[in-house]
């Protein structure tokens, strides 16, 4: 009898110490959602989360609303292509009836310091967020407390997997624009001014032209003078909007045949910027 009790104890002690059932062990083997998220999909979503390229359900009934008021829904409008919000390239981009305020926070540095879970929670929460079906007819652009300026309640329309894709982009897919160009910001939002210089910094133009000829010239021509956007050549666009080009080159332009080069490194981007800064090789 004694040996049976001892044997029973020996069998059960490890279970008691471990205090976990086999079920929990199996669950823990699933990769955390952050690990299987896609920074590339997140990058495309940062531009236009409801696009075909971002994999959004095209029969969602809110699409007409998003298209009618894109700047109230696009991450890049409120946070900037540089993720610097009011402290970056959008320092002079005030609100009007077609667009809300630019956010007063540096999302680039916040994203590097906060944990994936914290960023996810900010995207998932309904607190201090604007309902997706907000009534814009009562929007007063000049009122800083108008709810139209608030971040949309993305938890209402995006799946958790999509929110994790955004988090992964914020943590791993953004570029530090300070490595690509210098900027001088003067004044304060919404009447400040941004001036860009030293585009491409110490990048290598020979590598840059190789990259351009391989990846871009087929569509934009050897000197960037084909497919003008708002009348700007590729050189001119890069010199006036360097904050935006890096995102388009890496993630593509939704709604066009320009796909992204999601494997481009920071130093390759710098090389490309360097050559595009040259107005004799890439004229206005
Ligand atoms: C209409 C403007 C607007 C849009 C669009 C918007 N945001 Fe925001 N966002 C804000 C404002 C304002 C804040 C600061 C208030 C807050 O944190 O609640 C903020 C805060 C955040 C934060 C929290 C930062 C922190 O302090 O933890 C994250 C993350 C974020 N935004 C990501 C995104 C992403 C990703 C998108 C696109 C899917 C997006 N935002 C779209 C206005 C916007
Ligand atoms: C398959 C063709 C194609 C390739 C390859 C391509 N582009 Fe584009 N690009 C386009 C089209 C089309 C547009 C204009 C879309 C529009 O009119 O809205 C565009 C737009 C742009 C813009 C303007 C951004 C904007 O928001 O409209 C820039 C800058 C640009 N391309 C740079 C590049 C660079 C640099 C490369 C190489 C890394 C490249 N493109 C490769 C087709 C291409």
Account of the protein in words:
The chain is mainly α and 284 residues long. It has 2 domains: 33-175, no CATH class; 198-276, Orthogonal Bundle (Cytochrome Bc1 Complex, Chain D, domain 2), CATH 1.10.760. Helix content is 43%, strand content 4%. The chain is built from 14 helices and 2 strands, in the order αααααααααββααααα. It has helices at residues 2-18, 22-28, 33-36, 39-48, 63-68, 75-79, 107-113, 116-124, 160-173, 205-215, 217-220, 234-240, 242-251, 266-276, and strands at residues 182-186, 193-197. It has a two-stranded antiparallel ribbon. Helix 10 crosses helix 14 (266-276). The protein is globular, with a radius of gyration of 24 Å. The N and C termini lie far apart (95 Å). One heme C binds next to helix 6, helix 7 and helix 8. Residues 46, 49, 72-75, 77-79, 100, 103, 105, 107, 110, 114, 119, 122-123, 128, 149, 151-152, 154, 166 line the site of one heme C.
Question: What keywords describe this structure?
Answer:
two-stranded antiparallel sheet; 284 residues; single chain; binds heme C; mainly alpha; 2 domains; Cytochrome Bc1 Complex, Chain D, domain 2
